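Re: beginner question about structure tokens

> Can someone show what the tokenized structure looks like for a real chain? I only ever see the sequence side.

Sure, here's an example I had lying around. Input first:
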Amino acid sequence: EQARYHNYAATLIDYYTRKVYGQEIQRETSNKDLEAWWENVDGAGTDMSSYLRLALAKALCAGYVGILADKTKDAPTGPAKADEKSSVFLTRFLPTAILDWRVERDEELRAVKLLEDVPSPNLLAEDADVERVVLWDHEEWVRVTEAVEEGGRASVERQNHNLGAVPLVTLRPFRHARY
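And the corresponding structure tokens:
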């Protein structure tokens, strides 16, 4: 005889997210760039409402989810702000990918260490076992990519971001006592 498993958690999460997002959220702005970004917040064509709906579902499963705002590496074409060609995009991080963080007494996030996904076109390829960690603080980010195999070499990339803050927020479905 086979055992049966009812996934009640999935049903509850679906019910909760439908309640929260039962009506389409209406956003208004006169800024055409912001309006266009709301239609593609992750660089993969996901609109803001769909992105947050999935983030909420993941946060309900895992307790919280981190959302990092980053920008593409497109170089500016000149010195003016209008010459900036990079685009802002959001990335979700489950708790297992948030390896460490530092919080000041005022509960402001000072630094975070994240495990990034490293896409591999071929799982059987020699470079399939690659680990990439990125560290963010108030001044810069540092990305370390290392082959997991013995003898693998690490590459380090760093850049100042001039934000004065760590661009990561945690989405918690329920208020935590400390945060």
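Each token stands for a local structural state, so reading them left to right follows the chain. The CA atoms of residues 64 and 172 lie 5 Å apart.
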